[in-house]
Design goal:
Layout lengths: L1 E6 L2 E7 H13 L6 E5 L14 H7 L34 H9 L3 H16 L1 H21 L5 H10 L2 H8 L4 H11 L5
Antiparallel strand pairs: 1-2, 1-3
Length: 190
């Protein structure tokens, strides 16, 4: 997991969570400090780290990313039953006419739904990337620049996709906060 840590508005470190956590621990151990936050670089969610104890203890308690579903090898012969695709069963609520249509599709409802989802993922890839970049940037600026001058105008510019206006309204922010916000927003601005 790649992340970035801040002490107040000053960037402490960025990189792998283990490295960032250890550098952040050094700041905390020095004594009085501004509030410390660590952000996931992809989502800008705050990463909770328990800084009690030794470096080894801290590293042992770090959150671990969820394992990815195993990929099936098309050359490996399969036995009977469902393929090992990392399939997760969940409830889907549809109208009767939707179920009727799905059940008439080759392979049944599950195959048809997977095909529809894959098609939608590919068709919306660009829009999803822009939306996720804007959401991540907004999550970060809300936490770090919510009280800074120009925050509301910068947020509006972010969701409007206006690079010039976002840069203009974020200009008075502390340098490290401004730089990280612009980096996060890059894919969502034109």
């Amino acid at each position: 997991m790649s992340c970035t840590a801040f002490e107040g508005t000053r960037r402490i470190a960025c990189g792998e969570l283990s490295d960032v956590a250890l550098k952040t621990k050094e700041v905390i151990d020095r004594g009085p400090h501004a509030p410390v936050l660590i952000f996931d670089d992809r989502t800008s969610e705050v990463v909770e780290v328990d800084f009690r104890g030794t470096a080894a203890q801290i590293l042992k308690r770090l959150p671990r990313p969820a394992p990815e579903a195993p990929e099936s090898d098309p050359d490996t012969p399969r036995g009977p039953g469902r393929p090992r695709l990392g399939v997760v069963a969940r409830e889907v609520t549809l109208l009767p006419r939707h179920w009727e249509w799905l059940n008439r599709q080759p392979g049944g409802a599950s195959v048809a739904l997977r095909k529809l989802v894959e098609h939608a993922r590919k068709a919306n890839e660009g829009r999803d990337r822009i939306r996720l970049a804007r959401e991540s940037a907004y999550r970060f600026i809300s936490a770090m620049a919510g009280n800074e001058p120009g925050f509301e105008e910068a947020a509006r510019a972010l969701f409007a996709g206006s690079r010039d206006r976002f840069e203009e309204h974020s200009r008075p922010w502390p340098a490290d906060v401004r730089a990280h916000a612009r980096k996060l927003a890059e894919a969502g601005l034109s």
